[in-house]
């Protein structure tokens, strides 16, 4: 029988697993009770389960000075109405899952103290200890997520609402659940999609130095929405599984096949699904033969030796990335003339870079100095898989982007060894010689390239409510300081 750690899980789940004869221990990061309490070393168990359904929530309308809730305090609301109030014309619930900063100092610090463990120790159990996590995406807690998921494992996800009734399984997952003693039934419709790549929380004392991370779709629908996800972290895996009719029964069947759910060749099987992209990145027959030989090997090679890249045959578009898919809603042909004029006057650091980081939820603050290689280095999601991308950004100070001005920065991009995509984003006029050296550098590095000109910069910032959709002025508190109008999505609803 297995030793199972249930984190922030419902008592009914833990009791059901325990009744089957497994050694079940419980712990709380705090998102269910508001009281962190994890005294069991997570690396000493066989599996970790998170089946959260009744999260600890606060009232977002009771927020601010003199009220019950702020960044560091909260009053947990009991007996939330089944249909929580919506406001500000968004689908965000009035009631929100407790914030990380509202938990006690012990849960924030992620530091081992007094027998307590935190999120980073769960992450380390996966990455270094190979302990699998079964994380259920239950709508009971997802409906109360504000922007990102709770930091339960040192990783955060962003979700979007959907209504999926027809789903497809990734073949490795389908083969595993076909061995179950009963049919796996998901709660249809599946109400939430994983809309962005996982974001790894900034390292704190005791956090692992992850050697490798990659993720693949576990369940999808006909329009390639990611409804479940397989996340490899170092030696172990996190299985993000949509809510089933009986989550606990799924856990029992998975525990019977635990060695298969944590086997090293599982990641190789998911990699194989992306084989065409990997072959496209190869430059000669020897490289392709080597790639197939690696797949056949029992010891599947490390990620840096077999990293797959977006297919080289098709040109990338900004909206191909999950983080920027709302760009499709803004047409180039409908851009007012004043917008391009104002977009070309955006500052590189204070506006363009800041807007992009807000859109992708990357709050890293990098210095702009002589040692800088790229303005932003981050993870983006392309067709359900994560890729490392580097942005070279040019703002109003660079009216004409020439090779002479930018070549020194482009030629240094190969110092970043794990890149999959390089992106040149400029609001000035990009000259042909710049395009030439940029594309040659991408070919030299065997990576994909994307050039984002002022028109697409405008579409991006309109779609994500950073500039006014009428004249391109930067919004202040979701309002245009010139015309006073609302952002793009609010105008659409009016």
Structural class: alpha/beta
Overall body shape: globular
Number of separate strands:
20
At the third CATH level, what is the topology name of the largest domain?
Answer: Rossmann fold
Classified by CATH, the class of the largest domain is Alpha Beta
> Proportion of β residues?
15-25%
- Strand order within the widest sheet? 2-1-3-6-14-13-12-9
Radius of gyration: 24 Å
Helix content: 25-40%
Number of helices: 17
Q: Into how many domains do the coordinates divide?
A: 3
Proper CATH architecture of the largest domain:
3-Layer(aba) Sandwich
Major sheet summary line? 8 strands, mixed
Describe the structure in your own words.
There is one protein chain. The protein has 494 residues and is an alpha/beta fold. It has three domains: 266 residues, 3-Layer(aba) Sandwich (Rossmann fold); 33 residues, no CATH class; 176 residues, Restriction Endonuclease. The protein is 28% helix and 20% strand. The chain is built from 17 helices and 20 strands. The strands form six sheets. The chain has an eight-stranded mixed beta sheet, sandwiched between helices. The chain has a four-stranded mixed beta sheet with strand order 15-16-18-20, with helices on both faces. Strand 1, helix 1 and strand 2 form a beta-alpha-beta unit. Helix 1 packs parallel to helix 6 and helix 14 runs parallel beside helix 15. It is globular and about 70 Å long. The C terminus is likely disordered.
């Amino acid at each position: 029988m297995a030793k199972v750690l249930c984190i922030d899980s419902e008592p009914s789940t833990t009791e059901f697993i325990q009744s089957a004869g497994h050694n079940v221990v419980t712990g709380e990061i705090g998102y269910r009770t508001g009281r962190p309490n994890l005294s069991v070393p997570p690396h000493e168990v066989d599996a970790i389960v998170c089946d959260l359904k009744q999260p600890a929530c606060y009232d977002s309308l009771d927020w601010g000075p003199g009220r019950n809730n702020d960044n560091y305090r909260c009053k947990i609301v009991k007996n939330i109405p089944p249909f929580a109030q919506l406001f500000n014309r968004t689908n965000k619930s009035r009631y929100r899952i407790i914030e990380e900063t509202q938990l006690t100092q012990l849960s924030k610090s992620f530091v081992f103290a007094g027998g307590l463990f935190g999120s980073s120790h769960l992450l380390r159990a996966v990455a270094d200890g190979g302990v699998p996590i079964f994380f259920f995406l239950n709508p009971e807690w997802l409906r109360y997520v504000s922007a990102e998921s709770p930091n339960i494992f040192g990783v955060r996800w962003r979700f979007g609402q959907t209504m999926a009734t027809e789903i497809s399984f990734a073949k490795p997952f389908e083969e595993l659940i076909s061995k179950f003693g009963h049919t796996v039934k998901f709660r249809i419709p599946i109400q939430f999609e994983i809309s962005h790549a996982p974001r790894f929380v900034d390292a704190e004392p005791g956090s692992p130095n992850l050697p490798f991370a990659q993720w693949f779709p576990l369940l999808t629908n006909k329009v390639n929405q990611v409804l479940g996800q397989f996340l490899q972290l170092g030696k172990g895996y996190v299985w993000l599984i949509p809510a089933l009719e009986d989550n606990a029964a799924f856990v029992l069947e998975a525990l019977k096949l635990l060695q298969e759910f944590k086997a090293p060749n599982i990641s190789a099987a998911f990699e194989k699904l992306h084989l065409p992209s990997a072959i496209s990145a190869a430059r000669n027959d020897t490289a392709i033969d080597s790639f197939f030989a690696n797949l056949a090997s029992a010891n599947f090679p490390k990620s840096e030796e077999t990293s797959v890249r977006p297919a080289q045959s098709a040109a990338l578009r900004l909206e191909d990335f999950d983080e920027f898919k709302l760009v499709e809603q803004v047409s180039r042909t409908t851009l007012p003339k004043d917008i391009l004029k104002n977009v070309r006057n955006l500052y590189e650091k204070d506006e363009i870079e800041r807007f992009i980081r807000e859109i992708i939820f990357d709050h890293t603050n990098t210095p702009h100095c002589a040692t800088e290689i790229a303005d932003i280095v981050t993870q983006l999601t392309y067709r359900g898989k994560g890729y490392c991308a580097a942005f070279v950004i040019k703002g109003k100070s660079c009216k004409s982007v020439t090779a002479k001005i930018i070549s020194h920065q482009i030629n240094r991009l190969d110092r970043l060894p794990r890149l999959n995509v390089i992106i040149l984003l400029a609001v000035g006029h990009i000259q042909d010689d710049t395009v030439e050296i940029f594309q040659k550098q991408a070919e030299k590095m065997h990576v994909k390239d994307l050039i984002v000109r002022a028109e697409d910069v405008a579409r991006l910032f309109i779609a994500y409510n950073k500039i006014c959709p009428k004249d391109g002025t930067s919004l202040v508190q979701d309002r245009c300081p010139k015309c006073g109008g609302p952002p793009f999505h609010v105008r659409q609803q009016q």
